[in-house]
Design goal:
Blueprint lengths: L1 H8 L4 H8 L3 H8 L7 H14 L5 H8 L4 E6 L3 H6 L1 H13 L6 E6 L3 H10 L7 E5 L7 H7 L4 E4 L10 E2 L4 E2 L6 E4 L1 H14 L5 E5 L5 H16 L9 E3 L4 H14 L5 E4 L2 H13 L9 E6 L2 H5 L5 E4 L2 H16 L8 E4 L2 E3 L5
Helix pairs in contact: 2-3, 2-4, 7-15, 10-11, 12-13
Protein backbone atom coordinates (compact mmCIF):
# COMPACT_ATOMS: atom_id res chain seq x y z
CA UNK A 1 0.00 0.00 0.00
CA UNK A 2 2.81 2.37 0.86
CA UNK A 3 4.49 1.65 -2.48
CA UNK A 4 1.29 2.32 -4.42
CA UNK A 5 0.65 5.63 -2.62
CA UNK A 6 4.24 6.79 -3.25
CA UNK A 7 3.99 5.92 -6.91
CA UNK A 8 0.66 7.70 -7.32
CA UNK A 9 2.10 10.80 -5.70
CA UNK A 10 4.80 10.89 -8.37
CA UNK A 11 4.63 10.66 -12.13
CA UNK A 12 1.69 8.47 -13.32
CA UNK A 13 2.71 5.24 -15.03
CA UNK A 14 1.40 3.31 -18.01
CA UNK A 15 0.15 0.57 -15.65
CA UNK A 16 -1.87 3.07 -13.61
CA UNK A 17 -3.50 4.42 -16.77
CA UNK A 18 -4.34 0.85 -17.83
CA UNK A 19 -5.84 0.02 -14.41
CA UNK A 20 -8.01 3.15 -14.36
CA UNK A 21 -9.16 2.62 -17.96
CA UNK A 22 -9.88 -1.10 -17.38
CA UNK A 23 -7.71 -2.19 -20.30
CA UNK A 24 -4.39 -3.91 -20.78
CA UNK A 25 -1.04 -2.15 -20.75
CA UNK A 26 -0.58 -2.91 -24.45
CA UNK A 27 -3.80 -1.09 -25.31
CA UNK A 28 -2.59 2.04 -23.52
CA UNK A 29 0.73 1.82 -25.37
CA UNK A 30 -1.05 1.60 -28.73
CA UNK A 31 -3.20 4.65 -27.91
CA UNK A 32 -0.19 6.68 -26.79
CA UNK A 33 1.75 5.76 -29.93
CA UNK A 34 -1.11 6.58 -32.29
CA UNK A 35 -1.84 3.03 -33.44
CA UNK A 36 -5.19 2.55 -35.24
CA UNK A 37 -5.48 -0.99 -33.80
CA UNK A 38 -7.66 0.11 -30.87
CA UNK A 39 -11.45 0.14 -30.58
CA UNK A 40 -13.14 3.54 -30.21
CA UNK A 41 -14.46 2.59 -26.75
CA UNK A 42 -11.05 1.49 -25.47
CA UNK A 43 -9.39 4.60 -26.95
CA UNK A 44 -11.92 6.87 -25.22
CA UNK A 45 -11.41 5.10 -21.89
CA UNK A 46 -7.63 5.42 -22.14
CA UNK A 47 -7.83 9.10 -23.11
CA UNK A 48 -10.09 9.82 -20.11
CA UNK A 49 -7.64 8.04 -17.81
CA UNK A 50 -4.69 9.97 -19.26
CA UNK A 51 -6.45 13.27 -18.62
CA UNK A 52 -7.56 12.32 -15.10
CA UNK A 53 -4.09 11.11 -14.04
CA UNK A 54 -2.14 13.77 -15.93
CA UNK A 55 -0.10 11.06 -17.61
CA UNK A 56 2.80 12.25 -19.80
CA UNK A 57 4.34 9.61 -22.13
CA UNK A 58 7.98 8.75 -21.58
CA UNK A 59 9.59 10.12 -24.75
CA UNK A 60 12.55 7.77 -24.59
CA UNK A 61 10.35 4.68 -24.26
CA UNK A 62 8.02 5.94 -26.97
CA UNK A 63 10.97 6.48 -29.29
CA UNK A 64 11.92 2.82 -28.90
CA UNK A 65 8.48 1.85 -30.22
CA UNK A 66 7.98 4.46 -32.95
CA UNK A 67 11.66 4.99 -33.84
CA UNK A 68 10.86 8.70 -33.75
CA UNK A 69 12.16 11.41 -31.43
CA UNK A 70 9.41 13.95 -32.25
CA UNK A 71 12.17 16.57 -32.49
CA UNK A 72 13.58 18.51 -35.43
CA UNK A 73 16.61 20.78 -35.53
CA UNK A 74 17.02 24.19 -37.13
CA UNK A 75 20.73 24.68 -37.74
CA UNK A 76 21.83 28.21 -38.65
CA UNK A 77 25.37 28.73 -39.89
CA UNK A 78 25.68 32.19 -38.35
CA UNK A 79 26.68 33.75 -35.04
CA UNK A 80 24.24 34.25 -32.16
CA UNK A 81 24.57 38.01 -32.66
CA UNK A 82 23.19 37.78 -36.20
CA UNK A 83 20.57 35.11 -35.51
CA UNK A 84 19.01 37.09 -32.64
CA UNK A 85 19.71 40.53 -34.07
CA UNK A 86 18.54 40.34 -37.69
CA UNK A 87 14.81 40.32 -38.60
CA UNK A 88 15.15 37.63 -41.28
CA UNK A 89 15.99 34.88 -38.82
CA UNK A 90 13.17 35.79 -36.42
CA UNK A 91 10.68 35.63 -39.30
CA UNK A 92 11.93 32.22 -40.41
CA UNK A 93 11.64 30.82 -36.88
CA UNK A 94 8.08 32.18 -36.54
CA UNK A 95 7.14 30.53 -39.83
CA UNK A 96 8.71 27.18 -38.90
CA UNK A 97 6.98 27.19 -35.50
CA UNK A 98 3.66 27.90 -37.20
CA UNK A 99 4.28 25.11 -39.71
CA UNK A 100 4.95 22.59 -36.93
CA UNK A 101 2.04 23.68 -34.73
CA UNK A 102 -0.31 20.86 -35.78
CA UNK A 103 2.35 18.14 -35.49
CA UNK A 104 3.94 16.47 -32.46
CA UNK A 105 7.34 17.76 -33.56
CA UNK A 106 9.35 19.99 -31.23
CA UNK A 107 11.88 22.48 -32.65
CA UNK A 108 15.36 23.07 -31.29
CA UNK A 109 17.71 25.73 -32.53
CA UNK A 110 21.48 25.51 -32.96
CA UNK A 111 24.07 27.97 -34.22
CA UNK A 112 26.97 26.35 -36.05
CA UNK A 113 29.57 28.94 -36.96
CA UNK A 114 32.73 28.19 -34.96
CA UNK A 115 34.54 24.82 -35.27
CA UNK A 116 33.56 23.91 -31.70
CA UNK A 117 29.89 24.71 -32.36
CA UNK A 118 29.93 22.70 -35.56
CA UNK A 119 31.48 19.69 -33.85
CA UNK A 120 28.79 19.71 -31.15
CA UNK A 121 25.99 20.11 -33.67
CA UNK A 122 27.31 17.41 -36.00
CA UNK A 123 27.58 15.02 -33.05
CA UNK A 124 23.94 15.66 -32.15
CA UNK A 125 22.47 15.35 -35.66
CA UNK A 126 21.63 11.65 -35.61
CA UNK A 127 18.37 9.70 -35.78
CA UNK A 128 18.70 9.03 -32.04
CA UNK A 129 18.25 12.76 -31.35
CA UNK A 130 16.17 14.24 -34.20
CA UNK A 131 13.77 13.10 -36.91
CA UNK A 132 14.88 15.75 -39.39
CA UNK A 133 16.93 18.90 -39.90
CA UNK A 134 16.27 22.38 -41.32
CA UNK A 135 19.41 24.15 -42.59
CA UNK A 136 19.61 27.91 -42.94
CA UNK A 137 22.22 30.41 -44.14
CA UNK A 138 24.42 27.73 -45.68
CA UNK A 139 27.62 28.64 -47.47
CA UNK A 140 28.57 26.61 -50.51
CA UNK A 141 31.40 24.65 -48.89
CA UNK A 142 29.26 23.55 -45.94
CA UNK A 143 29.57 19.77 -45.40
CA UNK A 144 26.35 19.43 -43.39
CA UNK A 145 23.99 18.51 -46.29
CA UNK A 146 26.31 15.67 -47.37
CA UNK A 147 26.73 14.52 -43.76
CA UNK A 148 22.97 14.34 -43.24
CA UNK A 149 22.56 12.46 -46.50
CA UNK A 150 25.11 9.89 -45.32
CA UNK A 151 23.22 9.51 -42.03
CA UNK A 152 19.91 9.22 -43.94
CA UNK A 153 18.39 12.07 -41.95
CA UNK A 154 15.65 14.02 -43.76
CA UNK A 155 16.78 17.61 -44.39
CA UNK A 156 15.37 20.74 -46.01
CA UNK A 157 17.47 23.78 -46.93
CA UNK A 158 16.33 27.36 -46.51
CA UNK A 159 17.64 28.85 -49.76
CA UNK A 160 19.00 27.32 -52.93
CA UNK A 161 22.66 26.30 -52.88
CA UNK A 162 24.95 28.70 -54.72
CA UNK A 163 26.01 25.97 -57.13
CA UNK A 164 22.40 25.38 -58.22
CA UNK A 165 21.06 28.18 -60.40
CA UNK A 166 17.49 28.46 -61.80
CA UNK A 167 18.43 27.13 -65.23
CA UNK A 168 19.29 23.81 -63.59
CA UNK A 169 15.61 23.03 -63.05
CA UNK A 170 13.34 21.03 -65.31
CA UNK A 171 9.99 22.79 -64.69
CA UNK A 172 7.90 20.11 -66.39
CA UNK A 173 9.19 17.34 -64.16
CA UNK A 174 9.48 19.43 -61.00
CA UNK A 175 12.92 18.00 -60.31
CA UNK A 176 16.31 19.72 -60.27
CA UNK A 177 18.32 18.45 -63.23
CA UNK A 178 21.50 18.12 -61.18
CA UNK A 179 22.84 18.89 -57.71
CA UNK A 180 19.31 18.32 -56.46
CA UNK A 181 17.96 18.68 -52.95
CA UNK A 182 14.94 19.59 -50.87
CA UNK A 183 14.79 23.34 -50.32
CA UNK A 184 12.62 26.44 -50.09
CA UNK A 185 13.67 29.69 -51.73
CA UNK A 186 12.26 32.97 -53.00
CA UNK A 187 12.62 34.32 -56.53
CA UNK A 188 15.77 36.26 -55.74
CA UNK A 189 16.81 36.90 -59.33
CA UNK A 190 13.29 38.01 -60.28
CA UNK A 191 13.11 40.36 -57.31
CA UNK A 192 16.44 41.93 -58.25
CA UNK A 193 15.20 42.43 -61.81
CA UNK A 194 12.10 44.21 -60.47
CA UNK A 195 14.25 46.50 -58.34
CA UNK A 196 16.57 47.50 -61.18
CA UNK A 197 13.69 47.91 -63.65
CA UNK A 198 12.06 50.33 -61.20
CA UNK A 199 15.25 52.40 -61.07
CA UNK A 200 15.58 52.36 -64.86
CA UNK A 201 11.95 53.49 -65.23
CA UNK A 202 12.75 56.42 -62.92
CA UNK A 203 15.44 57.56 -65.36
CA UNK A 204 18.50 56.28 -63.50
CA UNK A 205 21.40 55.21 -65.71
CA UNK A 206 24.43 54.74 -63.45
CA UNK A 207 22.96 52.01 -61.28
CA UNK A 208 25.31 50.34 -58.81
CA UNK A 209 24.72 47.30 -56.62
CA UNK A 210 25.85 46.11 -53.22
CA UNK A 211 25.79 42.34 -53.75
CA UNK A 212 25.67 39.70 -51.04
CA UNK A 213 28.04 36.83 -50.29
CA UNK A 214 28.86 34.94 -53.47
CA UNK A 215 29.25 31.58 -51.74
CA UNK A 216 25.52 31.66 -50.94
CA UNK A 217 22.72 31.05 -53.42
CA UNK A 218 20.87 34.20 -52.37
CA UNK A 219 23.92 36.38 -53.10
CA UNK A 220 24.57 34.77 -56.48
CA UNK A 221 20.94 34.98 -57.62
CA UNK A 222 20.42 38.65 -56.66
CA UNK A 223 23.60 39.68 -58.44
CA UNK A 224 22.54 37.67 -61.50
CA UNK A 225 19.17 39.48 -61.51
CA UNK A 226 20.95 42.86 -61.34
CA UNK A 227 23.18 41.96 -64.30
CA UNK A 228 20.23 40.69 -66.34
CA UNK A 229 18.16 43.83 -65.70
CA UNK A 230 20.94 46.31 -66.51
CA UNK A 231 21.71 44.40 -69.72
CA UNK A 232 18.02 44.36 -70.69
CA UNK A 233 17.94 48.15 -70.21
CA UNK A 234 20.93 48.58 -72.51
CA UNK A 235 23.20 49.85 -69.75
CA UNK A 236 26.89 49.11 -70.21
CA UNK A 237 28.39 46.46 -67.93
CA UNK A 238 30.64 48.19 -65.42
CA UNK A 239 32.35 46.16 -62.69
CA UNK A 240 33.21 49.42 -60.90
CA UNK A 241 29.50 49.66 -60.08
CA UNK A 242 29.54 46.36 -58.15
CA UNK A 243 30.68 45.99 -54.53
CA UNK A 244 30.15 43.14 -52.08
CA UNK A 245 28.91 42.74 -48.51
CA UNK A 246 27.86 39.91 -46.22
CA UNK A 247 24.23 41.05 -45.67
CA UNK A 248 25.12 42.99 -42.49
CA UNK A 249 24.71 46.76 -41.99
CA UNK A 250 28.47 47.47 -41.54
CA UNK A 251 29.29 45.62 -44.75
CA UNK A 252 26.67 47.66 -46.62
CA UNK A 253 28.26 50.88 -45.39
CA UNK A 254 31.75 49.72 -46.37
CA UNK A 255 30.57 48.66 -49.84
CA UNK A 256 28.82 52.00 -50.37
CA UNK A 257 32.06 53.85 -49.58
CA UNK A 258 33.88 51.73 -52.15
CA UNK A 259 31.28 52.48 -54.80
CA UNK A 260 31.38 56.23 -54.19
CA UNK A 261 35.18 56.22 -54.34
CA UNK A 262 35.12 54.40 -57.69
CA UNK A 263 32.04 56.00 -59.24
CA UNK A 264 31.10 59.25 -57.45
CA UNK A 265 28.63 59.99 -60.26
CA UNK A 266 26.41 56.96 -59.58
CA UNK A 267 22.73 57.87 -59.38
CA UNK A 268 21.15 54.71 -57.96
CA UNK A 269 22.05 51.57 -56.03
CA UNK A 270 20.29 48.24 -55.65
CA UNK A 271 21.31 46.69 -52.32
CA UNK A 272 20.86 42.94 -51.79
CA UNK A 273 19.45 43.26 -48.24
CA UNK A 274 17.63 45.86 -46.17
CA UNK A 275 20.31 45.85 -43.48
CA UNK A 276 23.04 46.55 -46.03
CA UNK A 277 20.80 49.23 -47.52
CA UNK A 278 20.53 50.88 -44.08
CA UNK A 279 24.32 51.05 -43.97
CA UNK A 280 24.42 52.43 -47.52
CA UNK A 281 21.87 55.13 -46.66
CA UNK A 282 23.96 56.21 -43.68
CA UNK A 283 27.06 56.65 -45.87
CA UNK A 284 25.13 58.55 -48.53
CA UNK A 285 23.84 60.93 -45.89
CA UNK A 286 27.33 61.35 -44.40
CA UNK A 287 28.76 62.21 -47.83
CA UNK A 288 26.09 64.81 -48.57
CA UNK A 289 24.08 62.82 -51.13
CA UNK A 290 20.32 63.36 -51.05
CA UNK A 291 18.11 60.28 -51.31
CA UNK A 292 16.39 59.91 -53.70
CA UNK A 293 17.19 63.19 -55.46
CA UNK A 294 20.89 62.43 -55.99
CA UNK A 295 20.97 58.67 -55.43
CA UNK A 296 17.94 56.38 -55.40
CA UNK A 297 18.18 53.26 -53.21
CA UNK A 298 16.30 49.94 -53.32
CA UNK A 299 16.79 47.13 -50.80
CA UNK A 300 15.63 43.53 -50.55
CA UNK A 301 13.50 41.76 -47.90
CA UNK A 302 10.90 44.34 -46.76
CA UNK A 303 11.82 43.88 -43.12
CA UNK A 304 10.89 46.27 -40.30
CA UNK A 305 14.21 48.00 -40.97
CA UNK A 306 12.87 49.24 -44.32
CA UNK A 307 10.14 51.24 -42.60
CA UNK A 308 12.53 52.76 -40.08
CA UNK A 309 15.25 54.14 -42.36
CA UNK A 310 15.45 57.80 -43.37
CA UNK A 311 13.90 58.01 -45.89
CA UNK A 312 11.77 54.85 -45.71
CA UNK A 313 13.26 52.21 -48.00
CA UNK A 314 11.84 51.03 -51.30
CA UNK A 315 12.50 47.31 -51.22
CA UNK A 316 11.67 43.90 -52.64
CA UNK A 317 9.27 42.00 -50.40
CA UNK A 318 10.14 38.39 -49.68
CA UNK A 319 7.65 36.24 -47.71
CA UNK A 320 9.98 35.22 -44.88
CA UNK A 321 7.39 33.61 -42.58
CA UNK A 322 5.86 31.72 -45.50
CA UNK A 323 9.35 30.48 -46.31
CA UNK A 324 9.63 29.08 -42.77
CA UNK A 325 6.21 27.43 -43.02
CA UNK A 326 7.14 25.83 -46.34
CA UNK A 327 10.41 24.54 -44.90
CA UNK A 328 8.47 22.90 -42.08
CA UNK A 329 5.88 21.45 -44.49
CA UNK A 330 8.52 19.89 -46.73
CA UNK A 331 10.43 18.46 -43.78
CA UNK A 332 7.29 16.88 -42.34
CA UNK A 333 6.63 15.34 -45.78
CA UNK A 334 10.14 13.89 -45.82
CA UNK A 335 9.84 12.50 -42.30
CA UNK A 336 6.52 10.86 -43.21
CA UNK A 337 8.06 9.51 -46.44
CA UNK A 338 5.45 11.30 -48.53
CA UNK A 339 6.05 12.23 -52.14
CA UNK A 340 5.07 15.87 -52.82
CA UNK A 341 4.76 17.01 -56.47
CA UNK A 342 8.27 18.52 -56.27
CA UNK A 343 11.03 18.51 -53.65
CA UNK A 344 11.35 22.29 -53.51
CA UNK A 345 9.24 25.41 -53.21
CA UNK A 346 9.91 28.76 -54.94
CA UNK A 347 8.04 31.77 -53.52
CA UNK A 348 7.20 34.97 -55.35
CA UNK A 349 8.53 38.44 -54.55
CA UNK A 350 7.16 41.93 -55.28
CA UNK A 351 8.37 45.50 -55.07
CA UNK A 352 7.23 47.78 -52.23
CA UNK A 353 7.72 51.43 -53.22
CA UNK A 354 8.59 53.95 -50.50
CA UNK A 355 10.48 57.25 -50.51
CA UNK A 356 14.07 56.12 -51.12
CA UNK A 357 13.31 55.43 -54.79
Amino acid sequence: MTTQRARSAGRPTLDEVAALAGVGRGTVSRVVNGSPQVSPAARAAVERAIVKLGYVPNRAARALVTRRTDSVALVVSESEERVFGEPFFAGIVRGISSGLQDTPLQLWLAMAQSPAERERVEHHLTSQHVDGVLLLSLHDDDPLPHLLEQRELPAVLGGRPARMMPEQFAPDSGEPTRNGGWFVDVDNAGGARQAVAHLVAAGRRRIATVAGSQDMGVGVARLAGYREATAAAGLPADEALIAYGDFSEPSGAAAMRQLLARRPDLDAVFVASDLMAAGALRVLRETGRRVPEDVAVVGFEDSAVARQTDPPLTTVHQPVEEMGREMARLLVSRIRREQPPRPYSLLETHLVVRKSA
